[in-house]
Amino acid sequence: MSVEGKVALVTGASQGIGRGIALRLAQDGFDVALADLDFQEDKGLAVAQEIHDLGRKAIFVVADVSSRADVFAAVDQAADSLGGFDVLVNNAGIAQVKPFLEITEEELDKIFKINVNSVVWGVQAAAAKFAELGHGGKIVSAASIAAIKGFPILGAYSATKFAVRGLIQAAAQELAPLGITVNGYAPGIVGTGMWDLIDAELSKINGKPIGQNLKENVDSIALGRIETPEDVAKVASFLAGPDSDYVTGQVLLVDGGMLYN
Ligand SMILES: NC(=O)c1ccc[n+]([C@@H]2O[C@H](COP(=O)([O-])OP(=O)(O)OC[C@H]3O[C@@H](n4cnc5c(N)ncnc54)[C@H](O)[C@@H]3O)[C@@H](O)[C@H]2O)c1
């Protein structure tokens, strides 16, 4: 079965892993809707242009994934503009680098709204659209190695990613009768804006020079190099495509050899 002309929506697609997944899905044959925050529109439009250059359709949609209304509107816009809806990639997320004893109520609310609530809204919106169109589909969400193991100074972040794994397992079982698979990808240390932030914030806390925290983490990877968005996109492509038809409720580690299960 080909994915030619099928429609995927990728959130947080203006940069980093989301951009990598959007480009890979376009190479696979999907038409792609890209969602991101309004200040990321120019970068999102540039990704849309790259997808046009690959011969596929693409649109950019402004959406804050912590808003249920925005996520539903983004799914509607993707389906209306691109003529169908088959795959949602809940990729958008943020990190917070904070010693456990200093995490505030405001920070905890914010990271859960962006990393966890967004996945609930995404699953709901995608399932409603699949039902409206009379077919099943695939929902793929960003987990992390921090969904499998809690990391110090990333306590709130780890909790959100554990939550995403729980949501994936529950939704997969509830939505299987509707022909919907629900899975996630769990990257390790990917060279994106997120790790620039984590490295800089860890430096402030532990005094190590900029780049040192990143280097130490990369040194622990069995395959011996930092992960790229393309490495993650290969697994997302599998989970979005027909080769994963008999896979559901899974969070696939793609970390170059950091965690083993
Ligand atoms: N970088 C890593 O090492 C790593 C490892 C494991 C998991 N992840 C996960 O992968 C996903 C992508 O991470 P990345 O490294 O590409 O990060 P990034 O910061 O480079 O990109 C994240 C994108 O999401 C967008 N975004 C943030 N908040 C949003 C919101 N409320 N609504 C819509 N868009 C929003 C940002 O504007 C940005 O374009 C995240 O869920 C992250 O937790 C990243």
Task: Describe this protein with a few key phrases.
single chain; 261 residues; alpha/beta; Rossmann fold; 8 helices; 7 strands; globular; binds nicotinamide-adenine-dinucleotide; NAD; quinone binding; Sc_DH/Rdtase_CS
User: Helical proportion?
Assistant: 40-55%
CATH superfamily: NAD(P)-binding Rossmann-like Domain
**Associated small molecules:** nicotinamide-adenine-dinucleotide
* CATH architecture tag: 3-Layer(aba) Sandwich
Strand content: 5-15%
Give the strand order, joined by hyphens, for the main sheet.
Answer: 3-2-1-4-5-6-7
| Uncertain segments | none
Overall, the morphology is globular
Q: What is the CATH topology descriptor?
A: Rossmann fold
How many angstroms separate the termini?
31 Å
The class by helix and strand makeup works out as alpha/beta
The topology string of helices and strands comes to EHEHEHEHEHEHHHE
Q: How many beta strands in the DSSP annotation? A: 7
Family: Belongs to the short-chain dehydrogenases/reductases (SDR) family.
Protein name: diacetyl reductase [(S)-acetoin forming]
Active site: 157
Keywords: NAD, Oxidoreductase
